[in-house]
């Protein structure tokens, strides 16, 4: 089994904790001053990523970007 990868998911606007509730255990949430919300957390595998994206799209959240974070110091 492969190690989880840390990802940053950037979404448009200031998403409320109510909308993000299913993701709160897996991600830290940062409401940036530039009008986006950044979610940073570990994704274990492709099915986990698909579940996260399915939730975001089901509540009509616009995903701007998804990127793995470099784990090197």
Biggest sheet details:
4 strands, antiparallel
Helix content: 10-25%
What is the rounded distance between the termini? 23 Å
Radius of gyration: 12 Å
Q: Numbering strands along the chain, what is their spatial order in the largest sheet?
A: 2-3-1-4
Oligomeric description of these chains: single chain
Can you offer a commentary on this structure?
The protein is an alpha+beta fold and 73 residues long. Helix content is 23%, strand content 37%. The chain has 2 helices and 4 strands. A 4-stranded antiparallel β-sheet has the order 2-3-1-4, with helices on one face.
Task: Describe, in short, the structure shown.
23% of the residues lie in helices and 37% in strands.
List keywords for this structure.
73 residues; alpha+beta; four-stranded antiparallel sheet; 37% strand; globular
Outline the fold blueprint:
Elements: E1 5-12, H1 17-20, E2 27-31, E3 36-43, H2 46-58, E4 63-68
């Amino acid at each position: 089994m492969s190690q989880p990868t840390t990802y940053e998911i950037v979404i448009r606007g200031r998403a409320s904790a109510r909308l993000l509730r299913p993701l709160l255990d897996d991600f830290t949430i940062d409401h940036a001053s530039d009008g986006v919300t950044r979610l940073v957390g570990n994704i274990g595998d492709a099915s986990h990523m698909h579940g996260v994206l399915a939730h975001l799209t089901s509540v009509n959240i616009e995903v701007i970007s998804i990127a793995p974070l470099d784990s090197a110091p």
